[in-house]
Specification:
Blueprint (H helix, E strand, L loop, with lengths): L2 H14 L8 H23 L11 H30 L7 H19 L5 H25 L5 H23 L5 H30 L14 H18 L6 H18 L9 H22 L5 H29 L8 H18 L7 H22 L1 H4 L10
């Protein structure tokens, strides 16, 4: 099918579907931005003794699981369902099929939060099965796209394994669940390295005046390949807790990512909030890796939040904001909304890390951190969710 016929068929299918189901990014970006603060509100309410979760997972495990495999998973799905058809030239999932996918994701969230009666095995099958199917979809698109994106399909399959194993480890206590928490985080770090390595230089180059665009290359280089491989090896050493090797590898990966961030010349795009917010989110990645390499075991959980509540969450906000603009043809009513969202979330991550070490008491610090972080996603919901339920503005239609 040639490009003209494919575009005509795509628009015909889109016209038959509700606007929010006309592209994968629409329902899943809204779901991700809504679920993060909902899950955080549950967590803060539990910490204050106001509720008890009716889950087969203990509250701490539920919190980490729903942040990594719940909210992040929704954003990841939205991005991949939007990007993968570009690899293969095939039509994207819209309408009914997309409704099934988002319903499956939502079912997993409900079972994990309020259906302790279901038990760990059904929950693990439903939750991890979702990511196995997503991996298969990506693999199919990669096959038709002559291998493009195969690494993403493999990482998504490993993410599915980590998701299911996290359930069973927490329920049975027969093996360390921390290894699967680290695995989920490490896979997301790798995805930022792989996908961010393509998106950031491309968006940066496009935001520059034409006469200086050549100063930033949009093509991946050998240096990018080295960064990705070192990040993969450092992640593996961290997952299996190789104490003699992991700190060194994490430090090396952090330095390489910092060099990469500087190489993209973010200071040239401070005039474009949706692009500079991507750079600020990416900068938290090397800081998190360096923090993990130098901080002792007693503070690992705190520093880990620089990756999770910091880099990963802020990158999600920045990517969702940027793609919402480019894919809908619309702009938020407040131009600085992408930057504000990232700044709120990153400030929340920083407060979470320093809570209990200075003038901010631990419990109060966690509450302040959680609220700031929730504000970041609130900004997205206020300024970007309305764009996601309105028709795309096509070029020349204004």
């Amino acid at each position: 099918m040639d490009g003209t016929k494919r575009l005509a068929l795509r628009r015909e299918r889109e016209a038959k579907a509700p606007i929010v189901l006309q592209a994968g990014f629409r329902p899943f970006f809204i779901a991700s931005a809504a679920w993060f603060p909902i899950a955080m509100a549950f967590w803060l309410a539990f910490l204050s003794g106001k509720i008890e979760l009716q889950s087969h997972l203990d509250p701490v495990t539920w919190h980490s699981h729903e942040m990594i495999f719940g909210g992040v998973g929704a954003a990841m799905t939205g991005y991949l369902l939007t990007a993968t058809p570009n690899w293969s030239g095939r039509l994207p999932a819209i309408g009914g099929p997309l409704l099934v996918i988002i319903s499956w994701w939502l079912l997993a969230r409900v079972i994990n939060a309020a259906a302790g009666w279901a038990g760990p095995w059904p929950a693990a099958l439903i939750d991890s099965g979702y990511y196995f199917v997503l991996s298969a979809v990506i693999g199919r698109e990669s096959w038709h796209g002559k291998g493009r994106g195969v690494s993403i399909a493999v990482l998504t399959a490993i993410f599915a394994i980590a998701c299911g194993a996290h359930h069973l480890a927490a329920a049975t206590g027969s093996f360390d669940q921390g290894i699967f928490t680290r695995a989920g985080i490490a896979i997301l770090v790798l995805l930022i390295s792989l996908v961010g390595g393509k998106l950031l230089p491309s968006f940066t180059r496009n935001a520059l005046p034409r006469d200086i665009r050549t100063t930033v290359t949009a093509q991946e280089t050998r240096f990018d390949a080295i960064v990705n491989w070192v990040t993969a090896l450092a992640s593996l050493a961290w997952i299996v807790d190789l104490k003699g090797l992991a700190p060194t590898m994490l430090a090396l990966a952090g330095v390489l990512h910092l060099a990469r961030a500087i190489r993209w010349q973010p200071w040239r795009v401070t005039h474009e909030p949706s692009v500079i917010s991507l750079h600020l989110a990416y900068l938290l990645l090397p800081l998190g890796l360096l923090g993990l390499s130098f901080i002792g075991e007693g503070r690992q959980s705190d520093v880990m939040h620089l990756l999770t509540a910091g880099s990963i969450s802020c990158m999600i906000l920045a990517v969702m904001a940027r793609l919402s603009i480019t894919q809908t043809g619309r702009h938020p009513r407040w131009r600085l909304a992408p930057l504000a969202a990232v700044q709120f979330a990153s400030l929340g991550a920083i407060v979470r890390i320093v809570s209990g070490t200075g003038p901010i008491p631990l419990q109060e610090g966690w509450l302040i951190a959680g609220l700031l972080w929730m504000f970041g996603f609130g900004v997205f919901l206020i300024f970007f969710a309305p764009m996601l339920v309105l028709p795309r503005v096509r070029r020349g239609s204004r």
